[in-house]
Design a protein that fits this description.
The protein is α/β, with parallel strands linked by helices. The protein is built from eight helices and eleven strands. It has helices spanning 111-123, 146-153, 201-204, 221-227, 242-253, 256-260, 284-294, 311-314; strands spanning 32-36, 58-62, 89-92, 99-100, 104-108, 131-136, 160-162, 184-190, 213-217, 234-235, 269-273. Keywords: Glycoprotein, Glycosyltransferase, Golgi apparatus, Membrane, Signal-anchor, Transferase, Transmembrane, Transmembrane helix.
């Protein structure tokens, strides 16, 4: 028997004075209207932006993808500039958005959390991991040539590949967790594009949540310093080649004390997952409601969207 139940998107939110609706008849009375660009075919599919609307109403564009992959339903010719003069607020994973919705966050532990952590350390022992390196990929492409990097890396070190790009499988991909990844010391958190602040569940869940050290390909070194736990990750751009990275991973595997240094951050920080995959929470509607309560109410329009969101400026050349 299947039981359906309604979730409250504002249950763990700092505010709860918003009402969520999918009824387009309420378009003219809403305080905010959210548009998911990933599922927007073209500008003509939106309500007429020239139609009268409340002066306080905010049109918000949402994308969880990097600038290389903002549009999927649109044609290859669809550009951000097609939507100039329409949106008032942005909702993306980047911290300079009007409404930031990152896939995960690094938070300082509270005093009580530190005390609880000390108690858990006294009572238990961290699980030993038996396997070395894994990656789970179903899209073998990527603007950053990530798969070419993986193939070169595999010439120097064993890499277990899960998903359509390899011969190992886990049930589900986003809907269901992959427990087999718990056994690995390192996880290749290789995104499908090297873009500013682009860090997805690959690092937050498949690496940090599972107690692995993430090997980052995606966000810049500077972004990782700002957004990830200190000294908790390895970045491909610190290495001259996949062979050089492979030698370093093998060195860490043979040096337990050096490997364990990547977990010292846990004494003072924690990682929270907020991407919605694998039953983790998602706070997009909450963050929108908070923005309506707390953001600057002054009028604002993105008249030149490409100045805010553009692959030629916000993304980088491949490392390989």
């Amino acid at each position: 028997m299947c039981f359906l139940f309604r979730l409250n998107p504002f249950e763990d939110c700092s505010v709860s004075n918003c009402r969520l609706t999918y009824n387009s008849a309420e378009l003219n009375t809403a305080d905010a209207v959210l548009f998911h660009l990933h599922r927007t075919p073209n500008r003509e599919s939106l309500p007429d932006p020239k139609s009268p609307r409340p002066a306080h109403q905010r049109w918000v564009f949402l994308t969880d993808e990097n600038p290389f992959h903002t549009f999927t339903l649109g044609s290859d010719a669809t550009k951000m500039k097609d939507y100039n003069g329409i949106f008032n607020w942005s909702m993306t994973y980047r911290m300079d958005s009007d409404i930031p919705v990152p896939s995960g966050r690094t938070l300082r532990l509270t005093i009580m959390e530190k005390l609880l952590l000390k108690k858990q350390r006294r009572e238990g022992k961290r699980r030993e991991k038996r396997k070395l390196v894994a990656i789970m990929v179903s899209n073998c492409a990527g603007k950053n040539k990530r798969w070419s990097y993986v193939k070169e890396l595999k010439k120097h070190i064993p890499v277990d590949v899960y998903g359509a790009c390899g011969n190992l499988r886990c049930d589900g991909h986003f809907a269901k967790d992959c427990p087999r990844l718990n056994d690995y010391k390192f996880y290749l958190a290789f995104e499908n594009g090297d873009c500013r602040e682009y860090i997805t569940e690959k690092a937050w869940w498949n690496a940090y949540h599972k107690g692995a050290v993430p090997v980052i390909m995606g966000a810049s070194l500077e972004d990782c310093v700002r957004l990830l736990p200190p000294k908790s990750y390895i970045h491909v751009r610190n290495f001259s080649s996949p062979a050089s990275l492979a030698r370093y991973l093998l060195y860490l595997n043979a040096s337990p004390s050096e490997y364990n240094n990547f977990f010292h951050w846990k004494k003072n920080f924690k990682v929270v997952n907020e991407h919605g995959y694998f039953q983790s929470p998602v706070y997009h509607y909450c963050r929108l409601c908070e923005a309506l309560n707390y953001n600057d109410p002054a009028p604002k329009v993105y008249n030149k969207l490409e100045d805010f969101w553009d692959s030629s400026r916000d993304c980088y050349e491949p490392v390989i």
